[in-house]
UniProtKB/TrEMBL annotation:
Keywords: Signal. It comes from Anaerobacterium chartisolvens. GO terms for biological process: carbohydrate metabolic process. This is Cellulose binding domain-containing protein. One of its GO terms (molecular function) is polysaccharide binding. Residues 1-20 form the signal peptide. InterPro entries: CBD2, CBM2/CBM3_carb-bd_dom_sf, CBM2_carb-bd_dom_sf. It comes from the Bacteria. Residues 184-305 form the CBM2 domain.
């Protein structure tokens, strides 16, 4: 007779507080955890219960902080006795009593280093996984990467004890497939941006990797954004131009980009109407695996908008 299934439901909370580094030092400092090592956490989906940990990290512009964790379907000699599906919900938000460090990009990677999901500033995203039925215990390894790109003079706006970002992870396991989405989704922001890249290819003569990017700006508000523009930073990868539907502004510092509406005197391209989107794309150098940051959307009739929902998808097979 089959034993009682051990896997029912587990809700896990992981909170990592990130504190802005002092501008005077601009040096990385990670609290001593596990005798000096960054915590590597294992989430075990057997039985009922909760597990949590919290630690503080200091971060400054140009720095990257990483930590690894595993999701397992076994504990000692106990292995789940059914197909197991799980969902990890990452919520990047301001530390209580502080303002969020908006330039920070939080990304989740798989064991091969592929970026699964990411967000810049604040936001929420899901990572789904599963373990097929097996007599042998299984585990999936992930890495959380927190990056503060060099934003130049604007970085000073996020210095000091008044700024802090938290990464909260809720995990749930089920015997049935799970889907992305949240029972209580975060309030939609006035503007959302999707940044997508194609799988990179290597130039046969130069040996340099290239990729194609696409930026989609969506107006979620009830007011049109007239004569739109968007500015952002991008580390490592280098955008060279915009092919259509946007004009790329020249003469900006390295790693900084600005695009303006094409000026066609066409409402559908020069303005972003309520509930509508505009997109542009073009070529770039690099691997196409870094998220854009420090995003500002502007218009002739609106103040600069920096509180933006960002979604990034890297290494796609096509850009629709």
């Amino acid at each position: 007779m089959k034993k009682t299934i051990f896997v029912l439901l587990l809700v896990l909370t992981m909170v990592s507080s990130i504190v802005a580094g002092t501008l005077a030092m601009y040096t990385a400092s990670i609290d001593n955890l596990g005798e000096g090592s960054v915590v590597a956490k294992e989430f075990v989906f057997v039985g009922d219960g909760t597990d949590s940990f919290q630690h503080g990290i200091k971060i400054a512009p140009t720095e990257i902080v990483r930590w690894q964790f595993k999701v397992k379907n076994y504990q000692n000699y106990v292995i789940t006795e059914t197909d197991l599906y799980y969902k990890l919900t990452f919520n990047v938000l301001a530390v209580q009593g502080k303002a969020a460090i908006q330039p920070l990009t939080v990304a989740v990677k798989d064991s091969q280093g592929n970026v699964l999901k990411s967000v810049t500033g604040t936001g929420t995203f899901d990572v789904l996984g599963s373990f097929p039925l097996s007599e042998v215990g299984q585990e999936n390894e992930y890495e959380v990467e927190i990056y503060w790109p060099d934003g130049g003079p604007v970085d000073i706006d996020y210095a000091g004890n008044n700024y802090g970002t938290a990464v909260k992870v809720d995990a749930i396991a089920s015997q049935l497939p799970l889907s992305e989405g949240h029972e209580n989704p975060p309030e939609q922001k006035d503007v959302s941006i999707r940044y997508e890249t194609l799988t990179p290819w290597q130039n046969g003569q130069s040996g340099i990797y290239q990729f194609e990017y696409k930026v989609t700006i969506t107006n979620n508000s009830d007011e049109a954004i007239k004569d739109w523009s968007v500015a952002f930073s991008l580390s490592t990868d280098r955008i060279t131009q915009a092919w259509s539907n946007a004009k790329m502004v020249a003469g900006l510092p390295e790693g900084m980009y600005k695009f303006e509406n094409p000026g066609y005197n066409n409402q559908s391209t020069d303005n972003i109407l309520p509930g509508q989107s505009v997109s542009f794309r073009g070529p770039a150098y690099g691997m196409g695996t870094h998220a854009i940051g420090n995003i500002i959307v502007g218009g002739s009739n609106v103040s600069d908008i920096g509180d933006i929902d960002l979604t990034c998808e890297f290494g796609k097979s096509s850009l629709n």
